[in-house]
TrEMBL record:
<dbReference type="InterPro" id="IPR019267">
    <property type="entry name" value="CRISPR-assoc_Cas6_C"/>
</dbReference>
<feature type="domain" description="CRISPR-associated protein Cas6 C-terminal">
    <location>
        <begin position="123"/>
        <end position="216"/>
    </location>
</feature>
<dbReference type="Pfam" id="PF10040">
    <property type="entry name" value="CRISPR_Cas6"/>
</dbReference>
<protein>
    <submittedName>
        <fullName>CRISPR system precrRNA processing endoribonuclease RAMP protein Cas6</fullName>
    </submittedName>
</protein>
Length: 245
């Protein structure tokens, strides 16, 4: 189980209409220099979750200012994904989105976590999350049966979720080159803990987690790295504030 926070600075002022899609392309390109394409896109691919780009206040952004700091998060159950990305960024610390160059100015990485099992009862959706219903339909709602189905598929065993105790979500969109896809952000709390939820912290949830959707933080998953832990707390507070909590 691994997690990386990458801090970037833009070399110029820029407006990028689809930064999440551009980030996905840039990260896959970096990984492909170290991994076989089947390990990234094939049926046996290493699962990873890539967030959108945020400013330091943790707002998703499309407009970038010169020399201002931004960040994105990548999490995975496979260390090869993390190690390949870090090695390539160490060799060439420039990420190009559209025609704008971003310099990697800092990287935080973690692989040691304390799972506080009695606290694993809440999911924080820090990027828009949606479930694919059909080829042309998506469901931007935290439907328990679809959450259970996704988690069961990840763990290759049947998972039964506890009842929902509290929930507050809002819709939010991500723009792609030729379409806009709507998901939900916010939080979902169950009436009792479920240790297996901790896996979603590293795999994400729902549709297209490698393209900015479905980034999830799980209450009770504590990284040892202090600054990553602080970012988790800020993200969690932000999702609660969306609902006035």
């Amino acid at each position: 189980m691994v997690e990386v926070i990458v801090f970037l600075k833009s070399h110029e002022n820029a407006l990028i209409s689809n930064p999440t899609e551009r980030l996905h392309g840039a990260v896959v390109k970096l990984l492909a220099r170290r991994l076989n394409i089947e390990e990234i896109h094939g049926p046996e691919r290493a699962r990873f979750c890539l967030s959108p780009i945020y400013d330091v206040s943790l707002n998703m952004v499309r407009r970038f200012e010169k020399n201002k700091k931004y960040l994105f998060r990548l999490a995975s159950t496979n260390r090869k994904i993390r190690d390949s990305l870090l090695l390539q960024l160490a060799i060439d610390p420039i990420v190009v989105l559209e025609n704008t160059a971003f310099e990697v100015c800092e990287v935080l990485s973690e692989e040691l976590y304390n799972i506080e099992e009695p606290a694993t009862d809440t999911l924080y959706f820090i990027s828009p999350t949606t479930f694919k219903v059909s080829k042309t339909e998506h469901l931007p709602l935290p439907e328990p049966t679809r959450i259970a189905k996704s988690l069961s598929k990840i763990l290759n065993c049947e998972i039964v979720l506890p009842a929902i105790e509290d929930m507050c979500v809002r819709t939010k969109a991500i723009s792609f080159s030729h379409h806009v896809l709507i998901g939900f952000v916010g939080y979902l709390k169950f009436n009792e803990p479920l240790r297996e939820l901790a896996y979603l912290h590293f795999t994400g949830l729902g549709y297209s987690t490698a393209r900015g959707f479905g980034s999830v933080l799980v209450r009770g998953v504590h990284p040892n790295e202090k600054r990553i832990k602080e970012l988790h707390e800020k993200f969690s507070i932000l999702e609660k504030k969306r609902c006035g909590n």
